[in-house]
Structures are given as structure tokens and as C-alpha cells.
């Protein structure tokens, strides 16, 4: 299993990024969460097989229509095994 924390920069708030991310995550089979941050970025943690995580990361680099992703900082962290994927309150 692989778990990563991702910080996505660009025009990624107010464009449906988090809710589309939830659909993408569920389709890819990854667990975790996503939320907006006060600095205008989106933060997420995703966990799954390396192939599942790569699939979700590829979408995160593009984002939904209307967004403009400038970059994504990906950091590997220890897997937790928590199931499901949720949209969290803003941080």
C-alpha cells in the first residue's frame, strides 16, 4: 500500500475540485480525504495500491474543467488503512 499527502496549487477552489476528486478517488479505489486550505490550495491524502494512487495523482495534476493546476507537491507518508474517501471541512 502507498499513502501520499498532496498539496495542489493553482485555481483549484470554487471549481468543484474536491467533489470531483471524491468521485475520481472512489472510481480509482483509493481511500483518504480532500479539503480546501485557507491559502487557496487543496490538500489531500490518498491511499491504495501504487497503481491506484498513480491514477488519482494523474487526475489531480489536471483537475476538473474550470480549474488550472499549477503544480502538485506529493509527499509519501505511512499508510493508515482507513477505508473510504471523504471531503473534509476547510482547514
Automatic annotation (TrEMBL):
Protein's UniProt keywords contain Nucleotide-binding? no
**UniProt organism field:** uncultured Microbacterium sp
> Where does the record place the Acylphosphatase-like domain?
3-89
State the protein's name.
acylphosphatase
GO molecular function terms attached to this record: acylphosphatase activity
Catalysis performed (reactions): an acyl phosphate + H2O = a carboxylate + phosphate + H(+)
User: Catalytic center at which residues?
Assistant: 18, 36
Cross-referenced PROSITE patterns: ACYLPHOSPHATASE_2 (PS00151), ACYLPHOSPHATASE_3 (PS51160)
| Annotated transmembrane regions | none
Amino acid at each position: 500500500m502507498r499513502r501520499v499527502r498532496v498539496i495542489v496549487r493553482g485555481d483549484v477552489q470554487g471549481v468543484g475540485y474536491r467533489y470531483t476528486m471524491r468521485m475520481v478517488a472512489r472510481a480509482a479505489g483509493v481511500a483518504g480525504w480532500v479539503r480546501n486550505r485557507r491559502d487557496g490550495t487543496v490538500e489531500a491524502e490518498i491511499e491504495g495500491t501504487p497503481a491506484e494512487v498513480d491514477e488519482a495523482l494523474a487526475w489531480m495534476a489536471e483537475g476538473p474543467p474550470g480549474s488550472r493546476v499549477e503544480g502538485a507537491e506529493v509527499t509519501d507518508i505511512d499508510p493508515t488503512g482507513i477505508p473510504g474517501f471523504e471531503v473534509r471541512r476547510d482547514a
